[in-house]
Design a protein that fits this description.
The chain is an all-alpha fold. The chain is built from 17 helices and no strands.
């Protein structure tokens, strides 16, 4: 789904490991006693020895832009935990994110200096937007993406990520426009097709949402987020058997995918298998205690009798945690 796009646990692990290795490497080099790291030498070492490693190890994961930002954030915070000065950690994280966005430099003559500078500016703004999106500052993310688009109005990643940030603020119609622009700029952009399908469903246009999700899967058959989103759309259309197929396929790859678990719980409830449904909702909450969809579904299923006071408190706490408007409304409606 659109916000499975935001599930970045693998990226976070990579970022943390990279930071640990960098600090270990830096500490092993001879320096005057009690001398700290300086920004210039750190950046030089990072560029020479670690950015090529990023090309080999991180880029093959095919992380979307949000997950790249999460990787860079986890890298930065681990550096801070290890005692690296904030200024140095910021510079290194920024260099990492720009490298992930730009990719390895090709051999041979490069673009002109003016074109390289312009491209670097767009990538810098894109990286800033991704970092803001990763920390939940959606307004700042929107500003950065819009600034990037002022320099390159057809940049697919900036358009797609702007749509994602708008979605988080409940501005679905505007998000839809950005996803469509991203697809117009790059017809083969599976992320944008997936996000378009999801935002159409969020606007109640469920029938329309199926086609872009199937297009995303045609472009990228193993795309987990598109599998889950398609299953959710088919569920909303009442096609329970059809919905089960992509959801179960997703869980084979990602057994802890909360949205897939919750959707299968909804299918079980609609089929009258209430014990199975409750077990699935609880399984989702074991993975993520803030899973708003599972709280809302469990609230409806259990009808929240006085004996279920602990569950009621949990659902009410979830509703107060700064959810997106659509998600908060779902939990509060279930609570009555």
């Amino acid at each position: 789904m659109l916000f499975d796009w935001l599930d970045a646990r693998e990226a976070t692990t990579v970022g943390t490991t990279l930071a640990d290795d960098f600090v270990t490497h830096a500490a092993s080099e001879s320096r005057p006693k009690n001398a700290g790291l300086d920004t210039g030498s750190c950046l030089e070492k990072f560029a020479q020895k670690f950015l090529p490693r990023v090309d080999r190890e991180a880029r093959p994961l095919k992380l979307n832009l949000f997950k790249r930002a999460k990787l860079a954030n986890s890298f930065k915070w681990r550096l801070l935990e290890k005692g690296v000065e904030r200024e140095i950690a910021d510079e290194l994280a920024h260099a990492l994110l720009v490298r992930l966005s730009a990719g390895p430099q090709p051999a041979g003559p490069g673009p002109s200096e003016s074109r390289r500078a312009a491209r670097g500016t767009v990538l810098t703004l894109l990286a800033e937007g991704n970092q803001a999106l990763a920390r939940g500052d959606h307004t700042a993310a929107i500003r950065s993406y819009e600034a990037a688009l002022a320099r390159d109005s057809r940049h697919p990643e900036a358009l797609n990520n702007l749509g994602a940030a708008l979605c988080k603020l409940g501005r679905y119609s505007q998000a839809e426009d950005q996803f469509r622009r991203a697809i117009a700029a790059r017809a083969s952009y599976a992320d944008a097709h997936c996000n378009l399908g999801t935002v159409l469903r969020l606007q109640g246009r469920v029938t329309e949402s199926e086609l872009p999700l199937r297009r995303a899967l045609k472009l990228k058959p193993a795309y987990l987020a598109a599998q889950v989103s398609l299953g959710t759309t088919l569920l909303a259309l009442g096609r329970l058997r059809d919905a089960t197929v992509p959801l179960e396929r997703a869980l084979k790859v990602a057994p802890r995918d909360v949205d897939a678990i919750c959707a299968l719980g909804q299918i079980a409830a609609l089929e009258g298998r209430f014990a199975d449904a409750e077990a699935l909702y609880k399984r989702a909450l074991d993975v993520d205690s803030n899973a708003h969809g599972s709280w809302a579904a469990l609230a409806r299923l259990r009808r929240m009798t006085p004996a279920d006071g602990a569950w009621l408190k949990g659902a009410e706490a979830c509703a107060k945690r700064g959810l997106a408007p659509h998600d908060e409304a779902g939990v509060r409606y279930a609570l009555g």
